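[Solved] Which block belongs to which protein?

Original post:
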Amino acid sequence: VQLQASGGGLVQAGGSLRLSCAASGFTLDNYAIGWFRQAPGKGREGVSCISGSDGSLYYADSVKGRFTISRDNAKNTVYLQMNSLKPEDTAVYHCAARMGICGMVYNYWGQGTQVTVSS
């Protein structure tokens, strides 16, 4: 069971990036996928989640209206489209999976992808 996060990079403020979380070894259909981020010197923050059972979506207040989470079951991949990026979005972004609906504890974690937003 593996999750592979990708799509990070360096972008100017106001720009966009799309992160991908590809699963291998299991199918994402019945799993909730969450995106988390951790900036230097700060704790981990939940950014967004999409539930596996009913597709419910959740966003942190800090990213509402700017980030969009989606899934492509055919590609076994979840995406995080990030628009209107701000310097405070700079962090390492991880995706994680758990059965069913979004929650507090995730069983599987991918490696992080660095997002750097310059001012």
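(Second protein starts here: sequence line, then its structure tokens.)
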Amino acid sequence: IQLREFGGGSVESGGSVTLSCTASELISSGYCMGWFRQGAGKERDGVAYRENDVPTTYADSVKGRFTISGDVAKGTLYLQMDKLTPEDTAIYYCAHVPKIPSATCDAVLYANWGRGTQVTVSS
């Protein structure tokens, strides 16, 4: 499965951005999908996860501000980001992995990754 992110750009602090992720093929049931981000000089961190069309987990730093949604079965995932701050500046990636029954989506190793899209928030 090939993934591609869209929607990055520059925005002022307090603004909103919506990212989308499209997959090269339909995704069958039994999956984890997630949004990750990597700021300059930082490690890549998970932002939000979705398991079988149900939002599951958000990083504490984005709770109440970011919303993961989409029709994954049709190959589309979104990340609505509101009340952005300069600390949200990063390259954002979407990722996919078939669901492992014994594991949660925030604790698995993702197999398929997009190339990322830059989001820059100015103060």
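Accepted answer:
You had them paired correctly. Confirming on the second one: DSSP finds no helices and eleven strands in the chain.
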